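Input (structure):
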């Protein structure tokens, strides 16, 4: 009996070991999601994900892509990372309703396997001028150079991957856009898959070239390992959004303005300084127009000047106009993904203008308020002359005797008004 039990236990142990080994050998596909504008932090995230997938000895890295486009430099960094990856990189435009527009076209073309979900689209890859100054400052000659360079770049990638060179050039030169099914027919992508399960089934056994050598993908009984952005990567990616960078810029300027107008508050200055530094990082990754930044700063200067000059509101109006124009010109790009949303711009300008106007009102009101202590509080007070004032004399006010002077003689017992305080001597004039 004991021998039978021993055989049974040994059989269970062997079967469990085999199952464990089989489980361990199931291929793993690392999965990341790129959803939004392509910026420098996005490029770093994809590069680090490729490196991590290689360390994890994953079968491949799958990028779930949904982007309206983004920066040319970031796109090229991503394409470079994919083309030189030590393992297969699969770009899957998903879910339905997603798109691979502008920079997304080149990223998808560079993938070892390019896939799309039904109901997605790809295209509109006409290059956008980048860098300080914006697209509006690029003349036709330079625009042609940028377009020709982008067309040659995407053709070379398509040729390397055996995809349609003609269509990708049309996407660059004519901003052509097509559906997933059309992309498959035109050899722009490799397959259309409704979901992740169907994608893995479709790529099983496919042969790809990775780092110059052929590799057959094994996706049978594969498992996926979702890799999310780290907190640091999420913060940097969020800051690089034009709307977030703009809001941080306004918050930073408002904080410093409040600190300068009300010295000693400390907290607004700290928040303003941190916000400005974060805004500068975000702006450094976006196509920013110098004129827009200068107009916004000039608007803040006009708000500050209102407190000092008292222009009856003219400087405040000028500040609001400058702030609005600067906001409109800040991101000068024909790429919608790199422009400031009006849904953010209008409320932000209204709130910022309202904040500055309220601070100006409080500051002016504080300056014009009657003083209750010190020498300023004595101006306008009524005094009694207790010794004739002939150039100099003496007055009585609030239980105290003060030396006083007057341009005109004032007799003892007369009432006078203080018009100036100089040290311990008052300048008065008789009340008629």
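Output (sequence):
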């Amino acid at each position: 009996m004991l021998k039978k039990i021993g055989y049974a236990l040994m059989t269970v142990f062997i079967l469990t070991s085999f199952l464990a080994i089989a489980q361990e050998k199931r291929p793993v596909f690392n999965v990341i999601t790129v959803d939004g504008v392509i910026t420098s932090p996005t490029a770093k995230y994809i590069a680090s994900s490729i490196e991590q997938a290689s360390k994890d000895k994953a079968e491949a890295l799958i990028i779930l892509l949904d982007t309206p486009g983004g920066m040319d430099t970031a796109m090229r960094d991503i394409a470079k990372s994919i083309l030189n990856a030590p393992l297969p990189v699969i770009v899957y435009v998903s879910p339905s309703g997603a798109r691979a527009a502008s920079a997304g076209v080149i990223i998808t073309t560079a993938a070892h396997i390019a896939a799309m979900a039904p109901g997605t689209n790809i295209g509109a890859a006409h290059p956008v001028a980048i860098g300080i100054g914006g697209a509006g400052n690029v003349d036709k000659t330079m625009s042609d150079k940028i377009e020709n360079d982008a067309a040659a770049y995407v053709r070379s990638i398509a040729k390397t991957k055996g995809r349609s060179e003609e269509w990708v050039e049309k996407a660059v030169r004519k901003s052509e856009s097509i559906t997933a099914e059309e992309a498959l027919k035109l050899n722009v992508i490799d397959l259309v898959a409704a979901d992740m399960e169907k994608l893995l089934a479709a790529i099983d056994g496919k042969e790809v070239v990775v780092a110059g050598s052929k590799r057959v993908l094994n996706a049978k009984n594969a498992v996926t390992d979702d890799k999310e952005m780290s907190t640091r990567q999420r913060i940097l990616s969020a800051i690089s959004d034009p709307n977030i960078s703009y809001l941080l810029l306004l918050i930073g300027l408002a904080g410093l303005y409040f600190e300068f107008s009300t010295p000693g508050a400390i907290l607004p200055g700290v928040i303003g300084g941190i916000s400005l530094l974060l805004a500068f990082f975000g702006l450094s990754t976006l196509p920013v127009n110098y004129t827009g930044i200068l107009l916004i700063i000039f608007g803040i200067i006009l708000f500050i000047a209102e407190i000092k000059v008292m222009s009856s509101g003219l400087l405040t109006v000028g500040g609001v106009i400058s702030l609005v124009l600067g906001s409109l010109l800040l991101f000068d790009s024909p790429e919608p993904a790199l422009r400031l949303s009006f849904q953010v711009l209008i409320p932000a300008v209204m709130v910022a203008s309202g904040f500055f106007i309220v601070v100006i009102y409080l500051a002016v009101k504080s300056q014009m308020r009657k003083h209750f202590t010190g020498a300023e509080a004595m101006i306008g007070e009524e005094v009694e002359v207790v010794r004739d004032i002939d150039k100099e004399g003496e007055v009585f006010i609030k239980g105290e005797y003060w030396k006083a002077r007057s341009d005109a003689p004032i007799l003892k017992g007369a009432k006078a008004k203080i018009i100036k305080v100089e040290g311990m001597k008052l300048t008065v004039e008789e009340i008629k």
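Notes: The domain at 374-430 is CATH 2.40.50.140 (OB fold (Dihydrolipoamide Acetyltransferase, E2P)). The chain has three domains: 2-230, 241-368, 374-430.
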